[in-house]
Design brief:
Pnp Oxidase, Chain A; 9 strands; alpha+beta; nine-stranded antiparallel beta sheet; 5 helices
Length: 194
Amino acid sequence: MDLDDPIELFKIWMSEAEKKEINDPNALSLATTNETNEPSVRIVLLKGLSQKGFVFYTNLNSPKSFDIKKNPNAAMCFHWKSLQRQIRIFGAVNQVADKEADTYFNSRPYESRIGAWASDQSKVMKKREEFLKKIDDFKNKYKNEKNVPRPKNWSGWCLNPSSIEFWLGDQYRIHERLKYNKILNNWKKEILYP
């Protein structure tokens, strides 16, 4: 195991979580702030990982996207209780390239692609039937399940980490913490008190 590269260590921990966690081991809490520095946190799913960073997808008109457009600094937190592990990630967020977003969008189930068209994410709706009607309308518009284009207001965000902290639970709160800070494209490790 390469303990000098936190991305590689993350992959190992994620692989173990995929074997042990019952639901969505790729679920993470994403924290952003709006233009008045009010924090907001919600669960999103990790859908991509590379040396560039951690990728999730969403509606570009959602509150989280508006927050990121105003303040690109964000934090992620993975918590796998059954493994007594947590990973905290901090960094700047950038929108993924259209080609990358297209590739991921086309890998999604038909219903999820239609849902991306029909949902005005986080906007108020009068009744659920209006959303269900929009779904039907888009199913009629895009009948060919293999040819549903990606909406322009739907894409991905990549958090490029500046620090990553690994937390390993232990008895009596004698936890282990290992933090990596990126300095001039190199990772510096430090051990933290619990």
